[in-house]
Design brief:
The chain is of the alpha/beta class and about 550 residues long. The protein has two domains: about 15-245; about 250-525, 4-Layer Sandwich (Nitrilase/N-carbamoyl-D-aminoacid amidohydrolase), CATH 3.60.110. Helices cover about 45% and strands about 15% of the residues. The protein is built from 16 helices and twelve strands. It has helices spanning about 1-15, 15-25, 40-45, 50-70, 85-115, 120-150, 160-165, 170-200, 220-245, 275-280, 310-320, 415-425, 445-460, 510-515, 520-525, 525-555, and strands spanning about 250-260, 290-295, 325-335, 335-345, 355-360, 395, 405-410, 430-435, 465-470, 475, 485, 500-505. The strands form two sheets. Strands 5-4-3-2-1-12 form a six-stranded mixed sheet. A six-stranded mixed sheet has the order 6-7-8-9-10-11, with helices on one face. Helix 10 links the parallel strand 1 (about 250-260) and strand 2. Helix 2 runs parallel beside helix 4 (about 50-70), helix 6 (about 120-150) packs across helix 8 and helix 8 crosses helix 13 (about 445-460). The longest helix is centred in the first third of the chain and has 34 residues, at about 85-115. It is globular and about 80 Å long. It starts with a helix and ends with a helix.
Length: about 550
């Protein structure tokens, strides 16, 4: 009786445990191996076929995971965010993301309930293998894709982010971060299947769907065959991208990354910014960089980025580094519209009105705009940084031999695989530069968590990435996902202190950048979207037919 009561009470809270284990796989804990088994208990529950119970438990774990993994959001309170709105936004965003966990729990349980109704034999075996190898990964990755696009998209902490940052990210070159998520789901599903068979054996029941005894290990073997294929194909794609950057016609760009760590809101200058930048630029000036990258909002310290105050600073910084081009982010105003932008300042300096500028495309809802604020102007007063206008994707180009061109992603845009892929596949970028301002969430795990999102973009596109963060993580990422961060003496990314870093990155020729696309850059998310749509259609059809049959029986 005591054991039963203990078990009953544990069941009420025990389903939060998978969410905690999954949270531990991401920053700040970074126990990456946890992702391989964190979801197995929930997947075992889904295979019992009770959709309502499954959805409930998945939501519980998902809510714990998202509340914990977004625990950096309250840090914005100290930078002027009203705490009631911050708390409401934190809880609402966590619940919204947890709803995708619940949707997966319901859909997967519906699939397994249907599979259990198939009489034993070949079709039952096929349904089980299809569920493990196709249905579960496609359902999970399809829901991640929807979350990344719906209502502006929130593409934060996909499961595939973990293997991408653990050195096992090569499949992203053929299927994006979503294929890496499929790897995690496959491993968790295999563990759930093994546990299912063991527990069924203890209870004296069969969990093999009529599978002959000699073939009971088949599903585990097939999973490892599929994983081997993914990593073999991904490895070839990554090697091709590396050869593209090092082959004939390729070039090198000398890049300096300067992390000033200025406050997110300028209330007065505590230090002379020219002196601060002089100290940082002196560390890299002797190396004669081609490009000096400053973070998002850097020019807000001087003036809007297309005004004379910013131009004068850029001229000074360029002279300090021997004529390097200066890339810096800031605010731009045009005919009453506000843009979050990045400008490229090159010598001889162009007039402020003629600067090459990239305007941020993927704006942050409730941060850079309030949904509907263009129709209801009164809402614009609620946007923390003003109601911004989205721009159009475009590349910036360095002067000099070969005139290499690169794509810029500002802040949250480095999570948007579709946008970054467009820089490579449609516009022909030869490398990528990500600039961000993480000082809004300073002294939290946000900076490291944000940097994790960037790694898959390099593998997906097969292009090197330069990343500069204000109170963030600064460094470079190679096309195979290897990262070189600006670190302190303890070997950790230099987040809370200013610093500068220099690197020579290998870039493909313009022809190779267009011709030698990775499979993911060529096809994008269409295969996953099509597979998810077909599977959802099949689930709806089976559910509808089952409802019709039950209605006929009642009548």
């Amino acid at each position: 009786m005591i054991l039963y009561e203990t078990w009953r009470r544990f069941k009420k809270v025990g389903w939060f445990l998978p969410g905690f284990i999954l949270y531990a796989a991401f920053p700040p804990m970074c126990e990456v191996a946890d992702a391989l088994f964190a979801l197995a208990p929930l997947m075992w529950l889904s295979r019992r076929g009770d959709a309502r119970e499954s959805a409930k438990r998945w939501f519980q774990s998902g809510m714990f995971f998202w509340v914990a993994t977004l625990s950096w959001m309250p840090a914005i309170v100290k930078n002027g965010g009203p705490w009631p709105l911050v708390a409401l936004g934190w809880g609402a965003l966590a619940a919204y993301c947890a709803a995708y966990f619940a949707a997966y729990g319901w859909l997967s349980a519906e699939y397994w309930a249907w599979a259990r109704r198939i009489p034993g034999g070949g079709w039952a075996v096929a349904a089980r293998l299809f569920g493990l190898l196709v249905a579960e990964p496609v359902l999970w990755c399809g829901l991640e894709l929807v979350r990344s696009r719906l209502f502006g998209g929130f593409a934060w902490n996909h499961l595939g982010t973990v293997p991408a940052n653990a050195g096992f990210g090569s499949p992203a070159a053929i299927g994006g971060v979503y294929l890496l998520s499929a790897v995690v789901v496959l491993v968790n599903g295999t563990i759930a299947g093994m546990a299912e068979r063991i527990l069924a054996g203890i209870a004296g029941r069969s969990a093999d769907y009529g599978m002959p005894k000699a073939l009971r290990s088949l599903e585990t073997v097939l999973v490892f065959v599929v994983l081997w294929w993914m990593y073999a194909a991904g490895g070839r794609a990554v090697d091709a991208a590396r050869r593209k950057c090092d082959g004939e016609g390729s070039g090198r760009v000398k890049v300096a990354m300067v992390q000033r760590n200025f406050p997110c809101v300028f209330k007065g200058r505590e230090t002379d910014p020219y002196q601060a930048y002089s100290n940082l630029l002196s560390r890299v000036s002797a190396l004669k960089p081609d490009l000096v990258a400053l973070p998002e909002s850097a020019m807000c310290e001087f003036s809007p980025l297309d005004q004379q105050g910013a131009v004068r600073f850029a001229e000074w910084a360029s002279a300090e580094t021997g004529g390097a081009a200066i890339l810096a982010g800031g605010t731009r105003y045009d005919e009453g519209r506000v843009f979050n932008s990045a400008a490229l300042y090159t010598m001889p300096m162009a007039p402020a009105s003629e600067l090459p500028v990239y305007d941020k495309v993927h704006l942050v809802p409730f941060g850079e705009f309030i949904p509907g604020d263009k129709l209801i102007p009164a809402l614009q007063k609620l946007a923390p940084v003003g109601s911004c206008t989205p721009g159009e994707p475009r590349l910036l180009r360095l002067a000099g031999g070969g005139s290499p061109q690169f794509g810029v992603a500002i802040c949250f845009e480095d999570t948007d695989s579709a946008l970054v892929r467009r820089f490579a596949a449609t516009l022909g970028a030869q490398f990528l530069v990500f600039i961000t301002n993480d000082s809004w969430f300073s002294r939290s795990c946000e900076a490291n968590a944000h940097a994790w999102q960037s790694t898959a973009r390099a593998i997906e596109t097969g292009l090197p990435v330069v990343r500069v963060g204000n109170s963030g993580v600064t460094g470079t990422i190679s096309p195979d996902g290897r990262r070189s961060w600006l670190c302190g003496r303890d070997g950790r990314p230099l987040v809370d202190r200013s610093g500068a870093m220099f690197d020579r990155i290998s870039i493909p020729s313009r022809e190779e950048a267009v011709r030698g696309l990775t499979p993911y850059a060529s096809t994008g998310d269409f295969p996953l979207a099509a597979a998810f749509a077909l599977l959802m259609g099949a689930v709806i059809l089976v559910k509808y037919k089952g409802k019709q049959n039950r209605t006929k029986l009642l009548t």
